[in-house]
Amino acid sequence: MRWRHPERGILMPGAFIETLATNAIALDVGRWIILTACRKAAAWRGMGLSPGRIGINVFPPQFQGDFLLKAVDDALLETKLPPESIEIEITENSTLNYEGAAETLQKLHEKRVGIAFDDFGTGYASLSYLTRFPLSRIKIDRSFVRKIIDDTDAAAIVRSLIVMAHNLGLEVIAEGVETEAQAEFLINEGCEEAQGFLYGAPLSAVDFEKYLRARQLANKTAHRLRRGSRRAAPGRRMPRSSKR
């Protein structure tokens, strides 16, 4: 999410999210974010594109009562998206002061909606959350990932987090991957997914659709080339003998 400010231009989430989360409009904006994300995902699927799993961040106030549950249900009902195609991303701060958070997340989990723990490793209660909430995956915070090549302690922490997550049946996403060396380290350690500037900058919905179309075209081209090479590969033709 970005804010196109009339005077300051495009603002990153860090510049306004905390203020927005405590504002009276947080619930309305949160509902709009969920519905917009689901509508976009459904539209791309309708075009024959494959956007993959859509991660949706939520504000702390959305855990009041059944607000989050109803917002997700309404969005999925309108768009006819399969529940497993979206994933709610939580942080320690978003759930810390809401006793009903665990119950709400459990109900979403039972509907097959994914639950990811964002910025994992930066809070005081992160480890206890692994058993308290029905998580699908953890997202290792970029503050650890960016140091895994030059800092043996950071590398050991990331390695341990991946092993621990796998032992609990969770998948792992590494945040803030910017170099090939970082990506290679994570692949060797069994990290399933990664995000960061190595793979691309944040995109608008329009640009993301262009990316999906380009990827689809590249995949189709690669598939045709593989089929063509398989047809040409079997047995070498013997040279014809000439009789005179």
Q: How is this structure best described in words?
A:
By secondary structure, the protein is α/β, with parallel strands linked by helices. It has a single domain, classed as TIM Barrel, CATH 3.20.20. The protein is 48% helix and 13% strand. The chain has ten helices and eight strands. The C terminus is likely disordered.
Briefly, what is this?
The protein is of the alpha/beta class and 244 residues long.
Q: Helices and strands, in N-to-C order?
A: EEHHEHEHHEHEHHEHEH
Tell me the fraction of residues in β-strands, as a range: 5-15%
Q: Termini distance?
A: 78 Å
> What is the number of helices?
10
Beta strand count = 8
CATH architecture: Alpha-Beta Barrel
* Envelope shape: globular
Question: Structural class, from secondary structure content?
Answer: alpha/beta
User: CATH-wise, what's the superfamily?
Assistant: EAL domain
Number of domains: 1
* CATH topology (fold) name: TIM Barrel
Name the average pLDDT.
Answer: 87
Q: Give the proportion of residues in helices.
A: 40-55%
CATH class: Alpha Beta
Please state the CA-atom Rg, rounded to the nearest Å: 22 Å
The biggest beta sheet reads: 6 strands, parallel
Q: Give the strand order, joined by hyphens, for the main sheet.
A: 3-4-5-6-7-8
> Spans with pLDDT under 50 lasting ≥5 residues?
235-244
